[in-house]
Each structure stands twice: as structure tokens, then as C-alpha cells.
Predict the structure.
Amino acid sequence: MTRSLNRNRAGTVVLLVLGYTTFIAFVSMKVIEGIRDEIKNVGFPGEKQELRLVAHQALELSIAVLAEIRELDQQLYSPSQGWGNLNQYLNLEVNEEEEDPLNLLPDFESIQFGPGIEVQIRLMDESGKIPLNVKAEEALEDFFLSQELNETEANILKDSLLDWIDSDNKVRLYGAEKNYYRKLEDPISIANKFLEFEQDLFNIQGFEELFRGDDLLPNQLFAAFWNVFTLYQHRGVNYNTANPETLLVLDEELEFDAEKLQQFLAGPDNIRNTKDDRILRPNQEDQEDYPRDKFGEFLPFDRISQYFKLEIETSRGNSQYLLSSIFDFSKPGSVYPCTLLKILENQKIIHAYKPEIFDGNSIDPIENLGDLL
Ligand SMILES: [Ca+2]
Ligand SMILES: [Ca+2]
């Protein structure tokens, strides 16, 4: 018997989740009601405030779904467990009539928020990318050489990045340590530790020239880089959620057949994101086509989805609001079953080519994107 969620079990999950989410929603409403006046006083007009509250409720619902799936299915491995499309999972519907700010129908057929409010939830797993640390040397080399860079440029980027991260002050062949950064026109101190934000790359030798376009915005290389690497130091790349570009880099390094892996994950119909998708997870290795590396060893099946990026967009008419967050599901926080690492309002967590400030009749972003870049 397959240990992934089958249809009946998925049905049970929905019911249990909605039991749980009703509770969470109730609690969050109480909490939110309590802080409502406080929010009013910091200058959010009524309409925006409601969109903001709904976004925070949707954030809590999303966390509740992940917590419940993990509870019932032992671990979070793959969006095929049901968390791939939370809009569908929660059956979010626009409430045309109800006056209640949050209405969970008694039969749990759908979840509706305040009248006319649309909610879009996008959840992505950062654990399918390669953690950016000194151990990523080979992957960095493979990545830079796969881009349209010459060998010297690729070496400068790789060595300078590794020198920026490593704790020593020994300069790599093409790298730079504190002496280089001290002598700049605007001197800075070298971090000698992991990057905190994606845009910290621009402090490092070579990146300003190669990762920014003529329009001074982060260019395609910047986006491609953060499509493959992540700031979050998880326990190993989760192959279930690795994108094709990341698999290509890993495949160079570990020499497995990325195509066979994709076929396995896609299931018998060979199409990803359909009902027969399979999951790399413990106790599946007896399957004949379970993917292996060049030594004939099984690909790691115990890698979990740990770091999530969640974007929630709420809108009504011309008003829009965006809540972006990053959380770590391997560590419980004081309120949630996960730790919230970053929360941004009306601003995307930067990954996209030409990252845009959320475009709408929105409140002023708490931090201006221009200040960050
Ligand atoms: Ca260093
Ligand atoms: Ca060094």
C-alpha cells in the first residue's frame, strides 16, 4: 500500500484540517479583534485594514493546513501530499453576500472571507534548492559555468562569494577578503558568514557588475541564481520539490539521471502535478523504478520540506494587499507550529527577475524596495 495520501485519506485530512482551521480561525479572529484598534491607530484606512486582516487569517489557515498534513502523514515531503494548491485545498470562495468577516460554512464546503474579498495563496518550498554555504563550491562552479559567463567571471563570482562566507581571511585565487572591501571608495566590512538577504550579493566583488542590468535592477542572472540556491540552511535538498534548473546543477555533481527522477515523481501518466504523482519518501524503495545515483544507491528519500515561502494576495475591487513570509517548519515557534523568519507587507520577497513593488492601490510598504537594493 502506498503511504502517500490516497483519495479517501485526503478526504479525512480535509475534514480534520477544517476542524483545526476553524479553531485557529476563531482564535486568530479574537486576537486580531484585539489588535484592531492598535492597527487603526497606525494609519491603515478601513478597507486596507480589512484586506490586511484577511491576509493574516489566510496565513494562519495555511500554516494550520501544513501542520495538519504533517500530523497525519508523518512529515512534509511534497506538494503531492495536498499542500501544493492551498486555494483549492481550502476551497476558498469569494463571499458575495455575507457580512461576517470570516465565515466557515457548517459543512466545510468552502471558506469565505469578508464580502467581495478575493484571496490568492502561493506556497513554495525553499528546501528544494541548494543551501548557499562553503560546501556549495562545486555547485556554484557548475551553476556559474552554465550561465553566459566566461571562466574568469565565473571564478571571480565563485571565489569572492565563498570568501565572503568563509570565516577565514585567506584570499582565494580569484576572491577577496577584508583588505579588498576596506579599500573600496565606500569601504564595507566583510561578513565572513552566511548572507542574510538575497540582495546582500551586491556587496560582494563581481556581483554588482554582473548581476545588475543597465537599468540598475537585479537582472536575469540574479533571478536564475536564487532559483537554484537558497539562504536557508536545510538538511539536504528535497528532490521532490527541486526545480529542473536545480536538478541540472545537482545532476552534474552527484551524477544521477534527472530525467528518471522526474519520471518517477510524475507517476504512471508521466505528467507532474496530477493525482498519480509519487513522492520520494521512506519505505518506497521497494518500487522497481525508484531513482538511483550512478553507484546504484537510492537517491535520498528522507529529505523534507522545511523552509517555505508563502505569498498571500488579498483584493477587493481596486484595492490590493500582499503579505509575504518565510517560515521554518522544523522548529515550532511560541504561537505557531513553525517559526516565522520573515514577514513583509506589500513587497515581494526578492527572487523574481525585476522584482516589482506590489502594484496596486496599496498602503506604503514598510520597507521600500529601493532602500534594500
Ligand atoms: Ca572570509
Ligand atoms: Ca577565505
Remarks:
- The chain has two domains: 7-125+306-372, 133-230.
- The radius of gyration is 23 Å.
